[in-house]
Write a structure and sequence with these properties.
7-stranded mixed β-sheet; alpha/beta; about 45% helix; Rossmann fold; 7 strands
């Protein structure tokens, strides 16, 4: 089964391919970052199967399939080598891309990511999936808001703004979310971290309640020479600190290439 590929391509300059999170798509995971980073980069983003109108494969969703899809999106943009910016589950996709296609990757940016799922994350994924199957969009949206937004950010919202956030989440569940969550709950790229040979930035949201700072530190510790940069926000970097995230990414890539 050949899956359609119609990547977002913006800007010019060194290549930067985006790997989004589970139950999400490129625009949802990265918000305004493609436009911000396109000032100095050719930014490429392709939605995973199960998101953005792309059907799921006939077989299981795997990291190899997603890594190969990132490379195919880079090919579509005419990029021979490129950096990968992986957000959340996309951090593991980025690592797999770097180890599966080492001749194509020249840098990694791993944000709010993980090296391996743990029992807490599997519980999160199971609950998330159960709410999807139940069709209770309000409960699902409230649950995700509590996980992806920082406590400080939520506390600063008015009741109307919180309700608007819940409504936004409630209408945005991709049809392939359960397949994404099955992959997320079984992730383990710890054995590959030592084989990453490119400059790597690990961005750690300090109030991340979905994938915690401990997850980010374990990811950074496994990659020789990686740089860990904290940002004071929750998992949803694109909502809470988009410009700071873009600036950290841009500075690192400018120094690493």
């Amino acid at each position: 089964m050949t899956l359609p590929l119609d990547p977002l391509i913006l800007g010019s300059g060194p290549g930067l391919v985006l790997a989004h999170g589970a139950g999400s798509d490129v625009r949802d995971s990265f918000g305004p970052l493609p436009e911000l980073l396109a000032e100095c980069h050719t930014v490429v983003g392709a939605d995973y199967p199960g998101s953005g109108g792309v059907p799921l494969p006939s077989g299981p969703l795997t990291l190899d399939l997603l890594a190969d899809r990132l490379v195919a999106s880079a090919d579509a943009a005419g990029l021979s080598t490129f950096a990968v910016s992986g957000f959340s589950m996309g951090s593991a996709v980025a690592v797999r891309t770097a180890t599966r296609h080492p001749d194509r990757i020249d840098a990694l940016v791993l944000s709010a990511g993980l090296a391996a799922a743990n029992p807490r994350l599997r519980l999160v994924a199971d609950t998330w999936g159960a709410l999807v199957r139940a069709g209770d969009s309000d409960a699902l949206a409230s649950y995700l808001s509590l996980l992806v937004n920082s406590r400080a950010w939520l506390d600063q919202r008015t009741p109307e703004q919180v309700r608007e956030q819940v409504l936004l989440f409630g209408c945005g569940t991709p049809p392939g979310t359960e397949a994404h969550l099955e992959l997320l709950g079984g992730l383990d790229v710890r054995g590959e971290l030592g084989r990453v040979r490119v400059p790597t930035l690990v961005v750690s949201p300090t109030d991340d309640l979905l994938l915690t700072p401990a997850d980010h530190r374990r990811l950074a510790a496994g990659i020789t020479g990686s740089v860990l940069v904290p940002i004071d926000c929750g998992h949803a970097l694109a909502s809470e600190r988009p410009r700071e995230w873009a600036e950290a990414t841009g500075r690192f890539l400018a120094s690493a290439r």
